[in-house]
Specification:
The protein has 289 residues and is α/β, with parallel strands linked by helices. The chain folds into 2 domains: 159 residues, P-loop containing nucleotide triphosphate hydrolases (Rossmann fold); 115 residues, no CATH class. 40% of the residues lie in helices and 18% in strands. The strands form 2 sheets. It has a 5-stranded parallel sheet, sandwiched between helices. It has a 4-stranded parallel sheet with strand order 7-8-6-9, covered by helices on one side. Helix 2 links the parallel strand 2 and strand 3. The protein is globular, with a radius of gyration of 21 Å. The N and C termini lie far apart (58 Å).
Length: 289
């Protein structure tokens, strides 16, 4: 009986942190390879299965640097999944502003560089990777993550893979900074009373008990959270039944500091009592417009 191999494929925009993710997986015990040609992937997996070494988890970076990538990626992944292999595909996203800063700091050349500007290189790569992004099981936006934060995020996510239980992240965000790329479910809570307009609460955030008391004292807040929890109780098992490994539920208010933060913390309190692998991210808590 051949052994089962857990396969994690990391792809995404150049400069988004794929090397950091691969190194983190390596430290977690994955057998890792960078820039494996897509056509060699089936052969590589069979070699891992037949190897006498204890290779049970594999992490691979496959991206635009490999020239047959776009042509062979989708049919190769489809064939492997049809053959019964479980493959998790993680796509790393990043804002143009952050990418420009990273390329400037490292003085690295974009892999698609052909004499045009770095702006053109990034735009071209985004367009080329549209279908790869759409097929990903998980999208992680690294725009506002440093190396240590990205590493911690990856550790939290991938420690769950061996257990095959769906990881759920509740994320607060501010609409003024844009909707999170990685969100599977987005809920707008700007209809709730805003503590920002209460002078003594304006400088606080949704983690403060005074802000929470202000929000939960409102009838509409209580009604909303009860109905939203009921909806998630219905939806989460359905996502899990479809084999989804990661679910990101994003809660947005105007600035991402008060209402959305309090709602996310409330959701964490409820669901962490019922399930394992529940995480929170307050994306815009410390940002100033």
């Amino acid at each position: 009986m051949s052994k089962e191999i857990s396969i994690v494929i990391i792809s995404g925009i150049s400069g988004s942190g794929k090397s950091t993710v691969l190194k983190t997986l390596e430290d977690l015990g994955f057998f890792c390879i960078d820039n494996l040609p897509v056509l060699l992937l089936p052969t590589f997996i069979e070699l891992c299965k037949s190897s006498s070494n204890e290779i049970s988890r594999v992490g691979l970076v496959i991206d635009i640097r490999e020239r047959t990538f776009l042509k062979e990626y989708q049919p190769t992944i489809a064939n492997l999944r049809a053959s019964g292999h479980h493959i998790d595909i993680i796509f790393l996203e990043c804002s143009n502003e952050t990418l420009l800063q990273r390329f400037s700091e490292t003085r690295r050349q974009h892999p698609l560089h052909n004499g045009k500007s770095i702006h053109d290189d990034i735009a071209r790569e985004r367009d080329m990777l549209t279908h790869v992004r759409a097929s990903a099981d998980k999208i992680i936006d690294t725009s506002h993550l440093n190396v240590h934060e990205l590493r911690q995020l990856i550790e939290d996510y991938f420690k769950c893979i061996a257990r095959r239980t769906m990881s759920i992240t509740f994320m607060s965000f501010g609409y003024k900074f844009g909707i999170p790329h990685e969100a599977d479910i987005v809920q707008d809570v700007r209809f709730l009373p805003n503590p920002y307009f209460v002078p003594e609460l304006k400088s606080l955030d949704g983690r403060d008990v005074r802000v929470k008391n202000y929000i939960w004292a409102r009838y509409e807040s209580e009604q909303f959270i009860n109905r939203f929890i009921d909806m998630l109780m219905f939806l989460i098992p359905l996502f899990e039944r479809e084999g989804k490994s990661y679910l990101t539920i994003a809660i947005g208010c105007t600035g991402g500091r008060h209402r959305s933060v309090a709602i996310v913390d409330k959701l964490f309190d409820v669901f962490s009592q019922k399930r394992q692998n529940i995480f929170t991210v307050h994306r815009d808590l410390d940002r100033i417009a």
